[in-house]
Design goal:
The complex is a heterodimer of chains A (382) and B (252).
Chain A lengths: L12 H15 L3 E5 L6 H6 L2 E5 L8 H5 L8 H11 L4 H4 L3 E5 L3 H10 L5 E4 L10 H19 L6 H23 L10 H9 L7 H17 L13 E6 L6 H10 L3 E6 L4 H4 L9 H10 L11 H12 L4 E7 L3 H17 L4 E6 L6 H15 L1
Parallel strand pairs in A: 1-2, 1-3, 3-4, 5-6, 5-7, 7-8
Helix pairs in contact in A: 4-6, 7-13, 8-10, 11-16
Chain B lengths: L1 E7 L3 E8 L3 E6 L4 H16 L8 E6 L11 E2 L2 H13 L4 E6 L4 E7 L2 E8 L7 H11 L3 H10 L10 H13 L4 H23 L5 E4 L6 H11 L3 E3 L6 H11 L1
Parallel strand pairs in B: 1-4, 4-5, 6-9, 9-10
Antiparallel strand pairs in B: 1-2, 2-3, 6-7, 7-8
Helix pairs in contact in B: 2-8, 3-5, 3-6, 4-6, 6-7
The chains are: A alpha/beta (382), B alpha/beta (252).
The structure holds iron/sulfur cluster (SF4) (2 copies).
One iron/sulfur cluster binds next to helix 4, helix 6 and helix 15 of chain A.
């Protein structure tokens, strides 16, 4: 039976609405699969007739609950995702029929074992490197097995045709997201990084693909029509890239703050950013082969080596005319923290651009320090 | 014209004036930086006849309390101000600044007259003035005495980097009957080690300049330069680097 969580009455209005909206979808018979990472081949979920929802925690919510079980010294993203899940506070997790996850960083993959105690979790084995022997073959096999798993789970069969259609659909959405991101290629950018990230995040809450594409196209056209050439009496605001760990949990702390201080974030360079969206799935190939290729091309610090990230950084920095780079590393994210050493070298020595690294979590305790760093960084650039 | 730079730090507030008059003074920050800012305004007027509300006075505030100076015409971060101050004081185009502050320690590299990179340690009090202050209290010494003792002692390793644990470690060392000189030497060594870690991670250029309250302390300079394996340049007005920088920026 579909019912609301026991603690429903204690939620605020927004959360209540989220629950009700999703419950209505469920009552119509929608199947929901929760995901945590950009490596998840969403096409499989669509081909199984389900919708995917992203479950990444992005606030302090859930962290106290999570810390009762998980180590305190764990990445806040993992803690908050887990805490929201176990405390029934996230409608998306609550109404998910199952979770589709991958072996990415150690914290996440071990957390999935605990999550599996409350909800079925299927963990795909992602290779640790993109170019290792058999990486692509192994990943393709994982995708095939997952298709089988999803088919069995939802009592359906994922046919090549279903999968092909899902690929075409997802590519359409990717192109629409990329178009929206590309608005900031204009100089000066007609939209703040903060607003753009809210627009794109909102696609998580639209359930049909047509809705998403239409919504994105409308927004993109609106933004494009807002463009005004630079007032000759004014100085161009510095154009910055935000790279590093997924940044939805630090939108206010970093994106909003640096934009209030007088810069524009023109590239949101996370695993969901332009560099990932522009890799389409080849629609002409065997769908499994094509999916394996596309998803393994994502450049994340969980891969070793992760040299593709640097090629991406260079290309995106040039295309979006970036003046400086902020790298955000979440506490206890070892892969990004270690890789940051290379990123810094690459950005400052090879590309000759100013670089600053900010280590933080989702709390507001360090906002004064972050403000000083960002302010000093902007003074350094201008 | 008067150009006033006010650097409100966590323990001390430094003021520098440039232009028609050239002077510096320092006040303890106290618990309320707004109050301190008011006191500075009063001092400038009563003692030096400078009225910050006049049109011929331009004031820039900096430091962690920079936003608490209601009469400032502009705020600039301590990073930029330190860099500016050091450059005019030392007449250098490229150098690395180590600023050991009350609450944070920063390393700033300057290349061709501009800040090129900086690192701040502000999450934890190891390697800052705060650490020294707490240990001094524990040992019943003033800061100056701590260094005099340290200079005579043999370093007793303090292994905890965390201030709270280091404090208990010191209590233990005192209980074991160790000499105060040796413990003091351990405390200073711990600060120098932590500063060295931060500096090495950041990368040092030639011309290492020390600023902040400890920059007039020859014993700290000696110990830190031994740790870094590099000479350290200091200025008698080193603690005013941020304030002087702010005043010089106001001049532009
Ligand atoms: S940063 Fe890496 S591991 Fe984390 S969600 Fe993105 S792709 Fe997945
Ligand atoms: S931010 Fe880092 S530690 Fe956190 S989930 Fe992503 S890869 Fe793992």
């Amino acid at each position: 039976m579909i019912k609301l969580p026991d603690n429903f009455e204690t939620f605020d209005e927004k959360r209540k609405k989220g629950f009700i909206a999703l419950m209505e979808e469920k009552e119509k018979g929608k199947k929901v699969v929760g995901t945590f990472c950009s490596y998840t081949p969403i096409e499989l979920i669509l081909a199984a007739g389900a919708v995917s929802v992203s479950l990444c925690g992005n606030s302090e919510q859930g962290i106290p609950e999570a810390e009762a079980i998980l180590p305190k010294t764990l990445c806040p993203l993992i803690k908050s995702s887990f805490g929201l899940a176990i405390s029934d506070k996230c409608p998306y997790f609550y109404f998910s029929d199952m979770i589709l996850a991958e072996t990415t960083c150690d914290g996440k993959k071990k957390m999935y074992e605990l999550l599996n105690e409350i909800k079925p979790v299927h963990v795909m084995h992602l290779p640790q490197g993109q170019n290792g022997p058999l990486s692509i073959e192994a990943w393709k096999e994982q995708i095939k097995q997952t298709a089988k798993y999803l088919g069995d789970f939802f009592n359906t069969e994922i046919t090549e045709e279903n999968l092909h259609n899902a690929i075409v659909e997802r590519n359409r959405i990717r192109k629409a997201i990329l178009k929206a991101y590309e608005v900031t290629k204009l100089v000066p950018s007609p939209v703040s990084g903060y607003e753009l990230s809210s627009i794109i995040e909102a696609t998580d809450f639209h359930f049909t693909d047509d809705d998403i594409v239409e919504y994105l196209e409308t927004k993109t056209n609106q933004l494009l029509s807002n463009y005004k050439p630079l007032d000759p009496n004014k100085k161009l605001r510095p154009r910055l890239m935000l790279t590093g760990c997924p940044h939805t949990g630090v939108r206010d702390k970093i994106i909003k703050k640096v934009e209030d201080l007088g810069a524009d974030i023109v590239v949101l360079d996370s695993c969901a950013g332009p560099r990932t969206q522009r890799i389409l799935v080849d629609e002409t190939k065997d769908p499994y082969e094509a999916l394996a290729e596309k998803y393994l091309k994502i450049n994340c610090s969980v891969m070793t080596p992760n040299d593709g990230r640097f090629e991406d950084l260079k290309a995106v920095i040039e295309e979006y005319k970036v003046d400086g780079v902020i790298e955000m590393v979440l506490f206890a994210c070892h892969t990004f923290a270690i890789e940051a050493h290379k990123t810094k070298k690459f950005i400052s020595e090879e590309l000759g651009l100013p670089y600053i690294r900010i280590d933080t979590d989702f709390s507001s305790s360090d906002s004064a320090q972050i403000q000083t760093r960002l302010e000093a960084f902007l003074e350094m650039i201008s | 014209m008067f150009f006033v730079g006010i650097d409100i730090g966590s323990t001390a507030s430094k003021v520098a004036v440039r232009g028609q008059k050239e002077l510096e003074f320092v006040l303890p920050t106290g618990w309320n930086s707004k109050e301190t800012a008011f006191q500075i305004k009063k001092n400038l007027f009563d003692v030096y006849g400078i009225d910050v509300t006049n049109n011929d006075v331009i004031t820039i505030s900096t430091g962690y309390g920079r936003v608490s100076v209601p009469y400032a015409d502009k705020t600039v971060t301590e990073i930029t101000c330190h860099a500016k101050g050091v450059q005019v004081m030392h007449n250098l185009k490229s150098c690395t600044i180590i600023d050991v502050g009350g609450q944070d320690t920063k390393i700033i590299s300057i290349k061709d007259g501009n800040v090129d990179d900086f690192t701040m340690n502000d999450k934890c009090s190891a390697g800052t003035g705060k650490f020294l202050e707490i240990m001094c209290n524990r040992l019943g010494l003033t800061i100056d005495e701590l260094f005099t003792f340290a200079n005579k002692g043999k370093v007793l390793q303090i292994s905890s980097m965390c201030t709270v644990f280091a404090e208990s470690e010191i209590i233990g060392l005192m209980g074991d009957g160790n000499k105060r000189e040796d413990i003091a030497a351990g405390v200073v060594d711990s600060v120098a080690t932590k500063v060295k870690q931060l500096a090495t991670r950041h990368g040092l250029r030639n011309n290492v300049i020390l600023t902040g309250g400890l920059s007039i302390n020859p014993i700290f300079i000696k110990i830190l330069s031994e740790h870094l394996g590099q000479p350290i340049i200091a200025h008698e007005k080193g603690r005013f680097a941020g304030a002087i920088g702010a005043a010089v920026i106001a001049q532009k």
